[in-house]
Design a protein that fits this description.
By secondary structure, the protein is an alpha+beta fold. It has helices at residues 20-32, 49-53, 60-86, 99-125, 162-171, and strands at 10-17, 38-41, 149-154, 176-181. α3 runs antiparallel to α4. The protein is elongated.
């Protein structure tokens, strides 16, 4: 890992582009160059940016499905164990356990575990919470919410080479490229 000017660990490079079209073209070429640990920052949604970056569909819906199934099966199993095994109570000749009587609890457990999985799964997949990002210390990056179009390439990317990556970003038409230093530990 390279060190920045102040001796802190280099987080990556920040490149600014003048327009959404330049940013899209740069993202396509960065993706095609094989970079995997990078991101684009825009002040408004840019149509086609996800495809230009090569972003795959998220695994979150599958995690939510598994959480929901676990909730349904857990709710049914808990009611079966409680009513039929642990504390069997025969009331008016009714069976110890029947599926229709236990659907409301199973449904609620499905909703509960689906919601909890979606909430914590989103945080885990997005590597949150991250209260600060090295780009936030850049004066230039403050324009990302008004009229700036930026790309950050992280130094932990296997293809990252300080000089080579900086040269690539400049060749793609970046109006400015600056080093981002990581926060102190």
């Amino acid at each position: 890992m390279s060190a920045g000017a102040s001796g802190r660990r280099l987080f990556g490079l920040l490149a600014e582009f003048r327009s959404p079209e330049e940013l899209l073209q740069a993202c396509r070429q960065i993706r095609d160059a094989g970079y995997r640990s990078w991101d684009a920052h825009t002040p408004f949604p840019v149509h086609g940016l996800e495809a230009a970056m090569g972003i795959r569909h998220t695994v979150l819906p599958w995690l939510v499905l598994c959480g929901g199934l676990a909730g349904a099966l857990g709710g049914l199993l808990l009611q079966w164990w409680t009513n039929a095994l642990d504390y069997p109570l025969i009331v008016s000749g009714k069976p110890l356990w029947s599926l229709p009587a236990n659907i409301p609890v199973a449904f609620e457990m499905t909703i509960l575990l689906s919601a909890v999985t979606a909430f914590f799964g989103m945080f885990a997949l997005n590597r949150l919470p991250r209260f600060s990002h090295p780009a936030f210390r850049s004066a230039r990056f403050r324009r990302a919410t008004t009229d700036g179009f930026f790309v950050t390439i992280e130094a932990d990317d296997p293809r990252f080479d300080v000089e080579g990556t900086e040269q690539l970003l400049r060749s793609l038409g970046a109006s400015a490229v600056e080093w981002l230093e990581d926060e102190e530990d």
